[in-house]
Amino acid sequence: MRALIVGLMLSVGLIATATLRVPAQTSLPSKMSIQLPGPTVNFQPGPNVGIVQANCLVCHNADYVYNQANMTRAQWTGEVNKMRAAYKATISDENVPKIVDYLMTQRGKT
Question: Does residue 19 lie in a domain region?
Answer without folding.
Answer: no
